[in-house]
Structure formats: structure tokens, C-alpha cells
Amino acid sequence: MNIWIITIGNSDVQLWTKDHWTNLYRTVRSQLGDRGFTPTEGTDDRFLVPGRVMGTVYGQSQAQDYWHDLAFPLLDNFVGLVQHENIKIDQIILILTDQEVVFSRSQRRSTQSAYWQDTCTLEPIVATYLKDKLPQAQLKSLLLQPQSPTEGLDDWDSVLKLIQSELAQLDFPDSATIYVSHQASTPAISSAVQFMSLARFGKRVQFLVSNEYNLERPANVIGNSQYLRGIQVQQVKGLIQSGTPGAALHLLEFAELKGSLEASVVAELEKLVDFFNLNRSLTDKSSEFDVQAATARIVDGIALIERLFEQKNYLPGIALLAAAQETFLRCAITTEIKGRSVSLSINGTQQSFPAADLIQWLRRGLQFVSTDDLKHYWSVSGSSKEAVNQTIKTLKLETLKQLQFPIDDNRFKRQPNQIGKNEFMLKWLCHLRSDFQPWELLQWSCIKKNEEEEYEDDIRNKLMHNLQGVKPEDVVKYLLGNQKSPDTSVIQVYQTQIKPQFIAAIHLWGLPFTEPKLAERLQGLADGIRIQSTYDK
Fold first, then answer.
1. Over the stretch 303-339, which tens digit does the pLDDT of each residue have?
2. How far apart are CA 300 and CA 309, in angstroms?
3. Could you tell me the pTM of the whole model?
4. What is the C-alpha to C-alpha distance for residues 331 and 509, in angstroms, rounded to an integer?
5. Three-state SS across 199-225?
6. Secondary structure, 3-state, 415-457
7. How far, in Å, CA of 69 to CA of 233, rounded?
8. What are residue 128's phi and psi, to 5 degrees?
9. DSSP per residue, 357-415
10. Chain-centre distance for alpha carbon 112
């Protein structure tokens, strides 16, 4: 199936002669505001009249006897190409204009007003021409009618929306080829038709083009590849700038454009995808639980959270912030106890043990090394398993006491392996560093809540356990530690009440990091996205 979308322009219907104009015009002059329109000399001995006027005059029944007065130079060229290439056109879509709402009566007094250049009245004339040339094709018209007097058809944004709305109504089979003639009409309409037809129909689009200044040259069919690739590149740029490099990379792969870009640009995009997934390359023998690597992920996360909140992507921002805070607690505690030792009495002998050998950051968080390792390390033995386990428990509690852990909590005394819980980690960190001041969200999210408070007030738990949605005011309340502030936006709260305090805390522990300049990096990559020409290669 072949579809032909044609934009009809002001000069697509012309006159070979003006001999009959005066008599025909006299009968419809009142319909044209009693203005005096006279054909002006064009090219190749043809005469020009504004489109709305031409359609009104030659669309009347009396003009049927003078059909041969009419010339269709651009359409002749296109139809000649279609017939020469044996392209069977099954359906024709005519794009016409009507700006009656845009121009007032006083504005229409001028014969130079763009109102008179509308093409809506040309529809029956063009339809008759096309039915004669391509009788098998079905005809359908799309009328561009601005609804606001401030947004005429020279307004690029409003025209793009109009074209988008009209083309959205069209639904063709996937196998159909869509031929598009977009040169006629205003530059805004031409560009919008070109852009939106590619966006709507993609690779199915072929362009019929002609040299409107030299119609003796035959029209051509131009493939969509360069047009479409250009649009896809702009889409990739937009996705990168918006902070969705993964989608940009997917589009490059889907459109098979990766090979057309510089290798360094593609590599940087892949690195950005890793960055947005907090994937950092690790040096040999390093661990993702090393403080330096984890701190880098925290700082990356802080930048990503800001980007998410700027884009109003609150749910992923909340989840990432909770993870960043918990990771920070582990980094800070690991850093603080590094180099410290504990003195324990083992089998009647006082011995010193490095804290870092006893408490480590493992996959499940901060915890003592395994009981078997502790038995061997502490050389603990006994007559019964219960006695050995009791000794291990006592030594754990003594270790934590010397490391300033808050072991006075009865719940913890019963289960000393809970050192990795947020509630205990925050208390521990505050004991280790009295100059540390936790921000409201960190403090509130780490306190022990009863069950009703946890599920009524903590929107993180609503998200993580029940997949409930949130509103901006809910997020603000959450970020402020369950305190309402209706006049503050989410991003303002994050940028003033959380991010600075978070960065200051990282500085307090001297954790090594380089704060990423994410916006600049995204823009720089977007600027570097361009298709290499044969000259570049």
C-alpha cells in the first residue's frame, strides 16, 4: 500500500491566462470582502493569485468551463514522477490551511494579509485534478485550523502541535510506504510535516522533492535515512540532557547508529550508563565494600538523587537516598574503627585484637566475622557448645563496649549480631564522633518506630513494602524528617536540608571523593553526539 501526504501551498494552483478572471471574479467578489484581487505575473508565462481567492473564484460552478485556465506546476512534477516510477498511490492526504480565527476583519482588508494565502478553498480544485491523474487513489483532507488568534501558521511551536494532532489520526498498515511532499506551504508547516511524518511513520517514509525554482527538472524520491538519522540523533541528545543515558544508548542500538558516532563518544555514553547504575570500575584486588569505592558510589548517588528530584522522579529518588544514607553509615563507622584495637581476656590471658579483623563490612552489612572464624581467632574452646557460644557472645559485647557501641539497649544485649541495623549504626556513629550532627531525615529514618508509625508515616516503607504512590508534599515531609512544610519544593528541601549536610558529613570523616559535575557532563556528551560524515572518516 502506498500513501501520499501532500502539503498544498498558496501557489500550487496558478493561471495560464487571466482572460476570464474579471468575469469570474465579479460573481464572488462579495465573498472576498469586496477586495480587488488581480492576477500578477509569475514565471513561465503563468499568473499568480492568493490561494483562498483562487479557490473561491475557480471553485464556483461557472468556472468549470474554464478548467484549462488552471496550471498545477508542482503537482504536475510530482505526478509525473509517480507515474514514471509506476508507483500505485492508494490514498492521498491533502494538508490544507484555514486561519480565519487568526486574522480579524480589519486585518483582512489588506490584500497582502496571510489570510488570503490559505489553501482551504483549493480543496475541490486539487481533488478534481488528482482524481483525473490518479483515479484509483482515495482522497482525504486534513485542515490546519489554529484556534487562537495569537498562534498563526507561522508560529513554529503551535504548527508542530497542529501537525502532530492531525497525523496522529492517521493509521496505516505497517507494510505501507508513506510518500511525503512537504515543500509547499509555510516553512513552519513544511518543517513540521517533515519532522512529524518521520516521528510518526519512521522508516516507512519516502520524500518526493522538486526544485520549485526550476520545475523543468524532474522530481526525485529521497529516502528517509538522513532525515530520520538526524531526528534520532536529536532524540539521543535530548535523552542524554534529560538524564536518561540508558534510553539514549538503547535508541542508538535500535537505530543502528553506534557505528556512525565517534568511538570515544559511545564509550563515554556507556560510562554514563554505568554511572547512572552506580557501576564503577574497581582496581585489582579491591572490593565494592572498600570505603573509597563505596564513598564514590555515595557521592554519585547524591548527584543522581538531585537529578531525579529535579525531574520529579520521586520514587526512585527516595529509594536511592535511603540506600545512600545506609551506605554512608557503614563507610563512616568502618573508617572510624579502622586502626582501633580491643583488649580481651582469653583463657585468662589479656590479648589485643584489631577491630577491623573482628567487625567487617560484608554483603549483609556491618557484622562480626563468622563464629567459626572468631573461635579460631580468639582460640576459644570449652566443654560444651553452649559454653563456647556464651563466651563468644560475652567477647562480642566487650568488643563493642570498647568500640563505644550503644550496648545498653536490652534488645541488643539479647541479639548482639544486630550491629548493622540503621538504628544502632546511627547511635554508634554519634558515640564515636560527638561532633557529628545527623540531618533530620537520617535521624528520623533511623529511630525505632512502632508498627503503626512505620507504615503510616514512613513513605519509604510505603514504597518498599506496599508500592504506594507519593505526592510532592509527602516527599517534602519525608525529607524533613516527617515534618510538614507546604511552601517548599522537593528539590529545594534536598538542596538545602540534605545534600549540603550529607557532603559535610563525608568531609568530616575525610572520606576521599570527587564530586561529579553531572549536568556539565551530560551537556558535554550531548554536544558531542553527531553523525560522522564521509569527510570525518
1. 989 988 988 888 888 888 999 999 999 999 999 999 9
2. 14
3. 0.59
4. 9
5. HHHHHHEEEEECCCCCCCCCCEEECCH
6. CCCCCCCHHHHHHHHHHHCCCCCCCHHHHHHHCCCCHHHHHHH
7. 47
8. -60, -45
9. HHEEEETTEEEEPPHHHHHHHHT---SSHHHHHHHHHHHHHHHHHHTT--TT-HHHHH-
10. 43
